[in-house]
Amino acid sequence: MSFAKISGTGIYIPDKILSNKDLEALVDTSDEWIKARTGISERRILDKDKATSDMCYEACVQALKNSHTDPKEIDGIIVGTVTPDYMTPSVACLLQDRLDTRKIFAFDLSAGCAGFIYCLNVAKALIENGQAKKLLVVGSENLSKITDYKDRGTCILFGDGAGAVVLEESDEPGILSVCLGASGKEAELLYTPGGGSKDPNGYRFLKMEGKEVFKEAVKVIQSNSLEAIESANLNPNDIDLFIPHQANMRIIEAARERLDLPLEKCYVNIERYGNTSSASVLLALHEALNESKIKKGDNILFSVFGAGFAWGSAVIKW
Length: 318
Ligand code: UT7
Fold this sequence. Notes:
Radius of gyration: 18 Å
Structural class: alpha/beta
CATH architecture of the largest domain: 3-Layer(aba) Sandwich
Bound molecules: oxa(dethia)-CoA
């Protein structure tokens, strides 16, 4: 059996910055409150005339370049997103055309913030059982299009961005474990009731019971992380870098403490991007690599929790 490993990463971050100060003009909030309660200072906003696929395209081009892969070598594209350009066709199909790949399979997967980890699991299985050799695995969100900038409980949190990896066949283990879970009972604690950018009733906006989501996130990130560590036959102290979902600094801190991981083993960039849902851990992975925080042989733990509720943790060997 062959293994699957990440051979290149890429990201796209929109230029436009929405700062906490900017939000003070939109809702009853303050820079101090947002920083203290979430750890976020600013987030990125995609131009109105651009869409999720535009960000994915840029992230994929960079990931292909970094992995020295020609688009024609790619056997499939899987995109995790809750903000596709259209209800149908998928963002992945749009990418197939724009990246000028062969006429390979391409599909989107909806698992809220856990989208990328779910996609990673599917891609890993396809490679390990010989159905594909090289895949593009993407997480991208245009959350500003479904954020209500009159709701201070959500608009302070979310931002736009995209990340992509090339996952390929390898002789050495790369993705050591992936553990996924879901609980639909809590669906309406974090959901988007409708769609359509012209919807006059605001049903397209993301609605969230923040406090309830927060409590569950802390518990599940801990238990699901431990499950993934155990499934990789490792102990928490074997983890070299923890890349948690960047949803709230207090969730990250609580999870890190419960896992008994030291501060320097935890990667955080929430202050600059806020919560970018399925792009979140991809932005962090790419930046951690660029900052030389990851070296060959390191064990990296991802853990993500979000709408569904759906969650996933993965341990990879770099
Ligand atoms: O990616 C999916 C996962 N998502 C998450 O993990 C998000 C989880 N939730 C959160 O991050 C937090 O619950 C929030 C940041 C959304 C809210 O923080 P909180 O510490 O749970 O605040 P709270 O809702 O308990 O509200 C505390 C106080 C309230 O005032 P009173 O009742 O104590 O007077 C709120 O009205 O803070 C007030 N408040 C705000 N004040 C200033 C709530 N939002 C704001 C705000 N600015 N934006």
